Amino acid sequence: MKKRSNLSRNLWILVWLSVGLIQAWDYFRDKPTPPAPEPDGHYVALKHARLVDDSGNDGDSFKIAHDGGEHVLRLYFVDCPEKRQYSLVNGRLKDQAGYFGGLSIPQTVSVGVEAKAFTEKLLNEQRFTIQTRWERVYDSERSYAVVRFADGEDLAEKLVKAGLCRIHTKGTMMPDGQPEFDYENHLRALEREAKAAKRGAWGKPKRAPPKPKP
Q1: Closest C-alpha to 169, from 37, 74, 70, 99
Q2: Complete DSSP assignment for 92-114
Q3: Residue 188 sits in which domain range?
């Protein structure tokens, strides 16, 4: 009788150990990220999101974790310089260099690196809310978004004020109803201030124009 009782107890211990192991495995295993909802034209607010460290992150595009899933977001209105040079972005780097008045390609890349660090610092150290309509960036997995901080400013404004981006990509009506054209004009005014103060890319020495041939 005692032997049967010990056997029964050992079986129950094995069952509970198995259940515990299954629960631990389910908690720590890599779970697939749920797909972003289909865009329906209405903004949704994602609170308590956090930045995910990812090699693809840069000044205007980054991965976030929210509600058990991960999403890659892209800012409306602004485009930060590339953070490294490779053949597929050479044309874009030249356009970005020209936008800032004629920077060299290495200077332009350095601005891209600064922009990445600037965005990561803000998203890691300040509270923010993401507002998105899950509008896709072309055919990619990225979704356009507005990132607003507790001080009332959004990330696009902060990047423009720091001189770390150009106003060059898709615009939109803002979550508060401000029309696209009005908000772009607001960013242009901030850009003029950054340019006058020589912040970021606007303060870097420009390449000397080529000397005329004799």
Answers
A1: 74
A2: HHHHHHHHTTS--HHHHHHHHHH
A3: 39-203
Measured CA to CA, the distance from residue 98 to residue 100 in angstroms comes to 5
Tokens of 9: 């107890």
Single pTM value for the model: 0.81
Which is it for strands 78-79 and 128-136: parallel, antiparallel or unpaired? unpaired
> Pairing between strand 78-79 and 166-167?
antiparallel
CATH number at residue 67: 2.40.50.90
What angle separates helix 105-125 from helix 90-99, to the nearest 10 degrees? Answer: 90
Which structure tokens are listed for 159? 């990047």
Is 66 among the domain residues? Answer: yes
99 CB-side CA count, 13 A: 20
Which stretch of DSSP H or E encloses residue 63? Answer: strand 61-66
* Residue from 154, 195, 201, 204 nearest 174 by CA: 154
Query: What torsion do the CA atoms of 96, 100, 101, 106 make, to the nearest 10 degrees?
Result: -60
Read off the pLDDT of residues 53-111 as tens digits, 9 standing for 90 and up. 999 999 999 999 999 999 999 999 999 999 999 998 999 999 999 999 999 999 999 99
